[in-house]
User: Fold this.
Amino acid sequence: MKNPSSGSPEANGSLSVNRPGWFGPFGGCFVPETLIEPLRELEAAYASARRDPKFKAELKHELATFVGRPTPLTFAGRLSAELGLRVWLKREDLTHTGAHKINNTVGQVLLARRMGKKRVIAETGAGQHGVAAAAAAARAGLPCVVYMGTDDMARQAPNVARMRMMGATVVAVDSGSRTLKDATSEALRAWSSDSRETFYVLGSALGPHPYPTMVRDFQTVIGVEARAQVLKEEKRLPREIIACVGGGSNAIGIFTAFLKDKAVALTGVEAGGTGMAPGRHAARFAGGFPGVLHGTRTYLLQDKNGQVLPTHSISAGLDYPAVGPEHAELRRIGRARYVHASDKDALAAAHELCRLEGILPALESSHAIAYLIKAKRRFKKNGVIMVNLSGRGDKDLGTLCP
Assistant:
């Protein structure tokens, strides 16, 4: 399959791709025969859409009038004073539906309608992608089915209610770990059985080609805006950009616009859970090695026989055993570094941002804030640091205030 971006990867600052759908030795398209043709159809449709001025204009209009872009860049003055830094927050929590996920779902649902699909399906962990898919589908007048693990449904009950209010059918997945991994498997199975009528709105920059490229492209608006905004405010680029990493869509969305700015350090923060023993975390770069899951080759938590290991995170959105393949390549070439923050530190960081700034971050984003607080001594005094606040924490109140 030809990569839609392989002709001009430098156009958006992304990595050069030397093989279609690959980021160095990561990525690819490892799927059953039944999904080959649907993925080829999707690749061709996306390649056509991204060249079409009408599609681009419609997407830009929807991002402005439905999603609420551009999102602001907020100076965190009191947190900055405590840390001795200049901390800026890119406010994806202020988008419609409350997380960066809506950037991607609006793009994919517009593409589904352009392809003449009759319904969309999606998977979700924290529920933010499910809510965003339900909202975009409702606006487009398309039926929506969302697959979600039963454990995630229990800990993200408000988002389950929001999806249903928007007309989506939420399918409970009670197999395996009952989290995002198994919800993704069910969504892929559903798509393979009805790909003629169905469009699969995948929620992160992972899965088989062309999803990692397509999702990254739809999320790149975060970094493009942030780069212009920080230059306007500070007259300089940040020393470091920090973002949480589950599948990695919010992180790749903000990183991509800065890839050529070699003086800007890029840091992704994974879920350190309750410890580094297998089953107690979801830090793929700390405990995993390359393997294949859900159609892509990337870093994966697995045992020596290739069996996927159980994961844990207080944050449902980070509770996934694999990571997007472009992140694996960024780490391999040393352009980005990946660390992890514990459940305990993420909870404390959420409360700290509330206390100091009046902002309630999602537990996912709280991992990035936790790393910033713990690592403050590694930054130069008054250095400019940017954190991508990928979502808001209303959905997490049951955990934050038990």
In short: Residues 1-16 have pLDDT under 50 and may be disordered. The first strand starts at residue 22 and ends at 23. Residues 67 and 129 are 14 Å apart (CA to CA). The chain is about 40% helix and 20% strand.
